[in-house]
Amino acid sequence: MHDMPLGSAMTKIPSPGPALDDAQSRGWGAWLVLDPGCHPQAIQQLYSTDPDSEKNLLFLDSPLEHMHELSPRFAAVRSGTAMLTWLESHDPPGWGMILASDAPAGEVLAHLRSLLLVKAGGEDVIFRIWDGRILSRICEAMPEEVPLLLGPVRRVLTRTEEESWVLIDRQDPPHAPFGTSTARQCPWYLFSSRHDEIFRDGRARTVARNIVFTLYGDEPETGPAALPDGESLLAFAVRHVDRGLALGLNGERSLELFVRCCLLHGESFPDVDTMPGLRPFAARTMDEDAAVAAMLTICTQGDAHG
Question: What is d(CA 67, CA 60) in angstroms, rounded to the nearest whole number?
């Protein structure tokens, strides 16, 4: 079943079928977590291939419940189903993951929902726990985090940024008996300096992806039409997150506000000469709190002049 070890928690595999068969032979339940933004036909395919199975919104009963239209779906899955065949043949980026566990579905869902927001630099930020590209990067670099991230989940099958299949196994059984454990209050998981280091080379893209998701959903095409030279919203956000980082902004909230302001006021933002309210950006050392206050005023009023 295994192909090439990537670390103590992860193994590269050629396809998910054998690992899923093995999990189900143990009597474990298996579920698909599908991001609706990964492909225009993803949700239609999920409902048409298995119309009678229960499908739960991951964001339900969570801090992201107000974003229910963007919520990944959580549904039971079996090896060899048409949905898995479709995913393997289309391979849409960031489609989600397959989970296996001897815990009930409700406990698995509660754990995933507890991780939808995490603490990072004093802020609550969205953690795309359902995106295998992000989860696998953490698990490969920090295998000691696997028990915390997987919780009652015993096995994850997903795709990496390099588009290879990986198996993430939790070897140790959870300490609390299933059916009696309580999910932690969201947000409880902390992003440390080690997490920052893992994502440093792609931080602008990771932050930009969260911003696009928060503002317009997971498909850049749903964003504003008037972008430079037909640029996608994601590319626009990446470029301006890079600009914000270079100016001294660091927090995800401040970078989101910066992208919002760039969308409102164009490539010249922040033009301190014509927008006196943006004086914090002219300081030799960036006062991020003052910059956030100035951008909030601009976003609220829709006019930075005066």
Answer: 9
The angle formed by the CA atoms of residues 217, 222 and 225, to the nearest 5 degrees, is 140
257 closest CA partner among 274, 269, 246, 273: 269
pLDDT digits (tens, 9 = 90+) for 187-225: 999 998 888 777 776 677 778 888 888 777 655 455 555
C-alpha to C-alpha distance for 293 and 281, rounded to whole angstroms? 11
Which is more confidently placed, 166 or 178? Answer: 166
DSSP secondary structure string for all residues of 167-197? EEE--SPPSSPTTT--PPPSS--EE-HHHHH
Alpha carbons within 13 A on the beta-carbon side of 135: 31
Global model pTM greater than 0.85: no
Structure-token pair, residue 219: 């498909």
pLDDT tens digits along 82-136? 999 999 888 888 899 999 999 999 999 999 999 999 998 788 888 999 998 889 9
Q: HSE on the CB side for 48, CA within 13 Å?
A: 6
What does the alpha-carbon distance between residue 96 and residue 81 come to, in Å, rounded to a whole number?
Answer: 16
Q: What's the CA dihedral at 222, 226, 232, 235 to 10 degrees?
A: -120
**Residue 214: burial class (beta carbons within 10 Å; 0-12, 13-18, 19+):** middle
99 phi and psi angles, rounded to 5 deg: -115, 145
Residue 42 CB-density burial (10 A; 0-12 exposed, 13-18 middle, 19+ buried): buried
Give the count of alpha carbons within 13 A of 255, CB side only. 30
CA within 13 Å, CB half, 291: 27
**Beta bridge partners of residue 56, listed in sequence order:** 74
C-beta of residue 158 within 8 angstroms of C-beta of residue 98 = yes
CA separation (Å) from 280 to 88, 138, 156, 245, 304?
50, 35, 45, 15, 13
